[in-house]
Structures
1.
Amino acid sequence: MVISLNGISEERKSVMQEFAEEFGLRISEFGTEIVCCESDDLTAEYDGKTLTIGTRGGKGFFRALSLSASMPNNKSFILRERYGLRDLGLMADCSRGAVPTPETIKKLIRYMAALGYTSLQLYTEDLFEVEGEPFFGYLRGKYSQDDLRALDSYAALFGIELIPCVQTLAHFSAPMRWGKFREGKHDINDILLAGEEKTYEFIEKIFATMRACFRSKNIHIGMDEAHMLGLGQYLEKHGYKNRFDILCEHLERVAALAEKYGFTPMMWSDMFFRLAFGGEYCVRGGSVPKEVREKVPKNIKLVYWDYYSRDENRYDDMFRAHKEFSAPTIFAGGFWKWCGFTPHNGFSIEATNAALHSAEHYGIDEAFFTMWGDNGAECPLFAVLPSVVSAVETVYGHGGDEQWLYARFEKIAGLAWKDFILLDLPDVLEDDPCDLCNPSKYLLYNDCLMGILDCTVRETDEEKYAEYAARLQTFAKHKKWGYMFASAASLCRVLAIKANLGNRTHEAYDANDKIALSEITENEYSELLHRVRKFHTLFRTAWLTENKPQGFEVQDARLGGLYGRIESCRITLREYLGGKTNSVAELDEPRIDLSGKKEFSHKHIRLNKWSENYTGGMSD
């Protein structure tokens, strides 16, 4: 479609060219004129001359425009969709190693606008500039205040509310390593010292910074996973006190500061449930006692998060329990990109469909979906685009219509659904494509001689990885997404040798078959070294396509360590084969299954923590 900007506001004109280039629109002074009007539904009507877009306060304008671009040229049409939620958002993790560049965030905003999302949260534990706190985000690639203001303004032009997402109690492990930062406000581990004035002076700086950078009235204050609260410096100063009482007193102080700066805060809801149900969060059929529910400050919204279930009944129970609170409930689901190098779109979509169906039944009108980056954030941000598209199309009334979904995805992404979803493959070794195992990460780092995780490998795994490498390589030069496919294909080429290499090494050694062991050593170990180096190069390219360089030093250390260890294993085997040593100590020690049994289960698992993948010893 060729459009004219004559009917577009001056503010929107400034970003229309970028949007048009991304999503197949052309701009000409002789193009179709756009007229905007108010409507209860999202509408787009073209009469051959004029495109009339109806929105509720501008919400969904760019979705209507992108849908119109999909229609046949020069033919009249009428499109109408219902608004499914008052707010539908995403949360991008900027704190677990990978820090998306401002250009990547802007690209995400454009895609969100085209799809009809309305808010974006940037999860920034210490990844923003705070005056007077030089060690906050030090050497981590933090955003400047100018960066955040520019992103906020850019998002607003697309109708996206950029919402600050910070922490106000725990999750300060990075800055807590610096003694100067800890002074006067450190309780224990990554937790701030509750009840201490220096703590609230610091938190006020956070709110002041967020107010200076964001126009949103909403803010996420975290307040989760402070399991050791009150057991460090607090205990030394005040003695033992009920930790829930400490938490509630701290929350009151934080909520008051949020109100002072004109924010309506939201927080994760699990602390209230864990108190009521002995540490459990997701419960079936229970109610949080009234005296606990009354601890929630009046200006707080509660965020019920659940990333793990495909069972709609579980969501029903949790929404029912949340409805008993006087505080509004927001739902947070998850688009799984936090188990290594590979997305889990299959599981994410099934879990999201169950959650959204339940949320609609219980009248939940705000939801967002997290894109975490645990333990290194190796997976590209845009790898979960199928999940991003599927969720929003369900909200706009197209749930279950695969033909609509696939056509919409291809128009947005420029690549067919069946092809893009191949990025899930490196972790799809089970019969269930929605399984949440992550062998592509833990088998990459599994030690060739120690073989801690050899017990999980199946003989067919390497054959599958070779097949996956070939299928992924088909799209390695794709203009938009080639960087993701090239990296994933290279990872699979590594695993086509490495996945079962430990077992083959042990078998040859145990059989005293030095000919076989020599062939493995000289051919497979040597080729593996070459493939690991190639993977490092392509993975680095993928990382820098989306992220700042800070954080990749962790990947350099891990992959460099992997390369060095493989070389060391090759030297060890050569020394044994050459008669320099009489045995290989690592291969002499019997391996056992993770269940403790002698026989291997050959069952894949989910193990994302790198330090537990490669050694049975201590890595700290």
2.
Amino acid sequence: MIHPASFIPRLTLLAGCLLASACALEFSGWLPPVGWLPGWALLGALLVLPARLRPLGMGLMVSAALALSIHQALQTRLDPSLEDVPLVVEGTVSSLPSRQGFGDRVLFAVQACGPLDEAASLPGCEGLGQVSLSWGTPKSGAQDDADGPSADDVWPEPGQRWRLLVKLRRPVAAVNPDAFDTEQRMLQQGIGAVGRVVKRQRLQDEPAWQQGMAGLMRWVESVRAVLRQHLETLQARIDPARGQDEGRWALMGIVTGLSLGDQAAMGAEQWGLFSRTGVSHLMAISGMHVTLLAMVVSAGCLGLHRALARRASGRWLAWMSRVPRQWLVLVPGMLTAFGYALLSGWGVPSQRTCFMLLAAAVLSVGGRSQNAVTPVLLAAAAIVALDPWSVAQAGFWLSFCAVLALVWCAQQPLGGGMEEGDALSGTRWWQQGRVGQWWAALRDGARNQWAATVLLTPLTIAFFSTWSLIGPVANVLAIPWVGLVLTPMAIGVMLLAPVFPWLAGWLLKALLLQLGWLMAFLRSLDALPLASIQLPRPGVFALVCALLGAVLMLAPVGLRRPRLGVLCLLPLLLASPRHAPPDALVVTALDIGQGSMIVVEQGDKRLLYDTGASRLGGRS
């Protein structure tokens, strides 16, 4: 019989090939033509047979599969000739609505599509998969169709089916140096077009179980919508002015983000403060939150089993004794982790945590001794297999590198410590008893924070061109405060609001009070001089050199070279922005989506030239 653990080396090799292929396709900027892919895959299948060429063969086959999935995603985009053409689409609301000033913005899964004028000779849009729609209130005099159930409800909810008259355009966004790539994010989300709803009509909803996995995801989004509605009702109940106190209303957005993972509920000013103080990873549903909840549920199930086993007798005792303790811990914990990750929006940190826990559980049940890096590698490969675009996200690399730093740190002895049998005469008073346990936990936490800071600093500068000098200080207090106090309270408010709103209200008031204290603490740190500094985006050489320096600083005792590591970091930290000669004329054309905007620079003089929109109310 083949043991399941014997497949781990092959899975690890496949995971490495998958990550390498995804990175090669993403960062090379080259996508092989569709006609090459069958021959590419066939060549890879032939190279898999010799053991020496197996990694190369697996890499070719995996890269062919990834390239095919990218080509298929690009084929679902709207045809250029259908832009601003009235289209009739039928489908289902597939996401939690994003609240905006003029209405909602939702993702709409298209099931049928066609032009309003069927006689027009226009290309079809049947391949359109998912669109992003601006869903505003009907204009005065423009009423929605009265046919269909619940036609009076003009606001979308996940899982609802609609027939819509829409005007769409291709998902093209502004492209500027060092700016966020919105077009790539829309490609990653599978958005084939963006537009607005002109007219709408409700249709009969389909049962979720008839729609397969897509129906399950829409059902999860509908549950999230119900929970958010309860949170909004609770917020309006304790704040009747509803937003007149901007500070209090902004804190309520943080509560929604911590409980449901709805990052859009938090404003740009708050995200800026979190980014400058280095705590933005705590204000979204992260792996720490998912792991904490899974551990609580696993510990509760194990304690319940022990309590029942003490009181059981006869047949029940025999049955409970046959249940492996591993399954009592792993199964409830895994179900909780995946359930909460889905409920919180299924972000990359949540995916990483769930797949890492799953890989670690499988390896543990299989009885195979493995290094702690294997679950990290398998989890990264699983995310890339589900979403090839994920390697382009900063959160993907920051998340997994942070875990690698913690894993690496956990595998290294602290050094200078004493074994269990050593005489107590050589220990300090703070290293003994309960105080010694707290001291060891504090020392481990400081070491983990140091490791994460050293490894993530080069990546943070590369992605965001900023370095938070007060980030380690802020995280020392914010990590336990947010992870152990604020997040459990936010989850408790979310779960209690539908059942015991009065209890959830009291808990929410206490949570808002503590969030106010946390924000005041972060603002005081942000007000310090040189709290965060702006650095130029490093080149490839400087980034690789800095990562090598971080590895040398975190290496095991025998290989650790801290001075050499600091020297390797200098090209990244001391880099200066490139300046043109004083007599040179620098012209930069900015993409603003309408008209033209040009910046002319010479020395310390700058001229901004803007032509405005290309046509009244239009776009270029």
3.
Amino acid sequence: MAEEITHQKITIEDDLLLRNLRAFKKEAKSAKESRRLKDRDNMSVYLGDHDFSHKIKGQSRVVLAKQPIAIEQIAAFVKRSLMKFGDWFTVSLEGNSEFPVDEKSIFKFLTLLLDGDHANFGTGLADGIKQALNKSLMIFKVHGQYITIPHFRAVRDTSLKAITKFVTSGERTKKLLRDDKQSWKLLIELIPTEDYNPDPTGAKLYEIHSVEKDLANVLEMAAAPNSGFNKEAIEMLKSEYHLSEEDRQRIAYDANQNPEDIPKFRRKVQLDEFWGSLFDDDGLPIASNIQFIVANDKHVLLSPRPNPFWHGQSPFVAVPLMRVPGSVWHKALMDHASSIAIDRNELFSMMVDGGKAAVWGIRTVKPDNLEDPTEIQAGIPYGATLKIRQNTIGNDTFNIVKGGDIPNDALNIFHQLTREHEEATLINSIAIGQLPPRQVKATEVVQAQQGQNSFFESIANDVERDGIEQVLKKAWMTALQFVDDYLEPELVNSLGDDVAVTLQKMAPEDRFAAIALGPRFKVRGLSSIIQRIQDYNKLISFATFIFSNDVLARVFMEKYDTGKFVIKLLKGLEIDPAELELRPEEQEVMRQSMLEGMAGSATTAQGSPPYAGEALPGVGMSQLDLPEDQFAPKTIQ
């Protein structure tokens, strides 16, 4: 039986709405409390916020940067894989020849949407990877909003001053007019894990997006076309101020700024956006797949309504990098690495303190022997000159009891922690391209590379299949629903004249029913670059093995084209071989040079004998037993 898609409001008492919302929020927040504590520790390490409250003045407060760098490397790898190497996703219509929009137009349309100023998916994805590494999930919200786009036009100035100027000098003047127009824009918003409250059981009965917005932003949302916001609730918000001290501290910490820097006159509104099902007090369902918004936990800003998106799905896409069976929050890669990083920072700081103590030493002083004992209340600074009383007997006013040192056990433990941290972050010396600190067998290098590749392959599959492909699918269907609200020049630029006219002629419902579910999106940027790296490593290993042996090299060159082999290597490095090819005139010069070289070789063979330092045909230099006077001419028998 077909179900009609409607946007009519659902009548439910506000008290019942608020009871459902509060109960679900309490359940979701309680379930993620342990995850929140781990997130806090991971973010502290990422931001370099180590607890040195036990340190005294003069002691080291050094924070090592290995973990933040590891996170930046992984995020940069993902962004580079997707955004730098050409078309990172494909569109297929599965042989539907009667589809009104071709694959190329859909690809171009989505590419422009994703690269727009408001979506900016490349930067959002890199930030999402960083969030998932520290907080287990990257969460995208695919929706849209109406924005004001300025349009300018120059018209003839008809003011009295302009007319007078024309009469006196014959010069016409113009003035600039601005016409603001409303246009719908796709948004792909990265949601902080603190703001995302899903059903912790995995049943997906609800998702709640809790976010603080400036009152000015809420008023702008309410003024958008078809917002449906309750005007009475808006008026009540104007007289309220909602930003607790706890919220102020959290916002400031996440933004890495001082809480006092947030202006007190900047009025905030707490919005809880609910997506899912509602139940009565007996636990019986009364509505499903609905949306409503509550402000400041008491004002129903948007009354319950069916899911406004025609695709009928939640706008959220939550993707873990490390999956835990049966979990909603899963785990973060840095959960284990952070505890190691904290101990490593602490140990390194103490080692630096030991180095300082070795220079300064531990000193005792008799303050009664000083003319002014207050000079050393804050310690004895380096190079200080202090006055001693004239009647002081002996030279024991200052004594060095013991100098500092760094125990070998501390160094050993530090190196062990470093190795464990590199394993936990999967960024070891081999992986980042440094030379190993000792003799490492080839099998160890291969095993390290295979282990890292397997990990990134797992990340790539999850991010591509469960994350980016779902974002593309929802972005396409959402943009298609609101395509009539795009400005016509934008549609023409992205789809072309013919396709844009075809879509605009169709009724919105006909258009969505005909083409919304047709395209299939396949993301290949991450997996393809990983495969390319693996293939390149295989080719390099093969070339090293083959060309280190003259016999194998000769067999290879007799049977295979070395030029094609080099081309394959260049493609593995993302270098276009065509950019390195010789031009026709350069090829002619090279050919002449080779002919002249061959003629010179023939003359040498007929006249004077070759030198022993020259390679014989079919014989490598390593096979020649050269005497000490190898540069003297020899006759080959």
4.
Amino acid sequence: MSSFKLALFNARNNIKLFKFNIICMVFSIAVFFNFFSLIFNPALNLENTDKLIIKATLYMVSILLVFFILFFILYSNSFFLKQRKREIGIYTFMGVDNSKIAMAFAIEVIILGIVSLILGLFSGMVFQKAFLMLLTKVATLNKEVTFYLSINAIIVTCVVFVLIFSLAALKGFMSISKSKLIDLLNAEKQEDKLLKTRYITGILSIVLIWIAYIYSGKIFTESFFTNSSIVIFCVILGTFLLFSSVLSVVIRFMINNKKILYNGTNIVSISNIAYRIRYNYKTLACITIIVAATITSIGAAFCVQYLLQSTVKVSYPYSFSYVGSDSKVKGKVLDTINNSKHEVSIDIETKYLLFDSQKNSKLKKNCPVVKFSDYSRIIGTLKVSNTDSIINSAKGLEDGDSISLASSNDSGFKNNQLLNMYGLKIKIKETINVPLLGARFSNNTIILTDNDYNKFRENCSNQVVPEKEWTFNGIIVSNQGDSLELSKKLASIPELKDNFTSYITYYSLYNEATGVVKFTGLFLGVVFMLSTASIMYMKIMSDAIGDKKKYEILMKIGMNEKEIYHAVSKQVGLSYTLPLIVGAVYAFIGIGALQTFLSKYLEVSLLLPFLLSLVIYVIVYILFYLLTTRKFIKLVTSK
């Protein structure tokens, strides 16, 4: 029988064994295809986007997705190969040459890969419409994203997966070719030796992770391709080195510490972990990276939504705003609103002046200047959170002092910075982040005492080119989230041309710009979460099959079900706990890098969305742990 016929024969007879593997590969291919279809879809034009955060997100997700799928397929093939080593040993015992069996296995992997690729592409195309509908819903896009069969996405998917399946086939071929008959027949009884303690490797892993930490703060720059590649490379290599060195140190410490080793069923749990550590540390390292990617993906999605709510409150506190004191224009605006389905909730009008803080330079930096009494009135009317404390903290403002209100586009003034405002000496007391005039002004707003404001107004009028006093109008309407049609009508008033800002317009643009990031984060978070469950399931089941005979012997010499439960819980628990702890630290650093980037423009803490994503993941993770522990116990105790 030729290798090809043997491969076909095995594929047909092992279809039940391969069913789970094929489902996993088809799912991976469909996800990969839909993700790249999203990038190449002309309606979204993501491949040509000039938005740094979207480009960085898509680039990093693409690398992580390829890494994850590569590991997932290689691991699942290794898992199923391990379960079939006895079958391969029987073929060898019957006289079939190792190279012929290895070639048959390689062909089998290629055949299953081609079948999975065809089914995955077909599934991806079938479910692409649902995928796009979900994208439109989660990202709240205003544009219609239609079905688009991307040839580029098909080519990328085929090339990537053909390479992955070829690598899996080559890995299996080499593994079988080098195997000995006795090793194949006794594959289930083989145990790894305890890893040597590698202190230098441990130090190197810490150095690599530290380098990744340093470069993580430089990801969101023009060099994000280079910096993010360094971060990913250092994290992956550092994690593998960390687990190969630290795990051996931890296990040796527990073995040498007799109080820990002989406490309850610890001796069973620790010995089972210790003598499978060489095989398991690679799996745990990969799971750690996937855990980090999952928490970061979900956290980033929550951060995008959290940032949207935070920035809107400060940058766009009004439904609509414009500058002008013409009563006729004001009448047109109010009439347009009254003739719509909306009502005016708040109507604010205030005077302000402009101060060019860089008057002697070529670059103008016009900062609006508002008097303290108007500032207090507006803050109270807008019902800003902590209104009383904000106003009370500023009540001690004296002539010669001022408060600076932060702008998202301005690095602002330093505390105690001295300003010469056309002859008026002013010191910036502090800079705070509260809404007032909104984002129509790109520079910080300066609050002066009423007395200093009057002096500054007089100084403005005495300039060679007198600076006039302006009138700001801010209006809040009911149900502003559905005010896009009203916004378009107001923007069409001739007098408001180039002099009109709208909350709903900004909200829509922001959602369109970051909605894809939000959707990608949530979707990949779910994908990685399910995949983590699949990998952990295969790992735990592989351990259970290997430990079944040990537990059978332990039960015969008197070990009861409660003791087995405790031993298994600790053994499985370590496999879950270590990746979760290290992965959560990586995710925290990743979210921290995003906050460092955003801190240049906003005073916002991303700790809450990070903790929310972590809590959600931990809850799901605990459910995985309970299910796999139960399955492990059921397998080792079954007759």
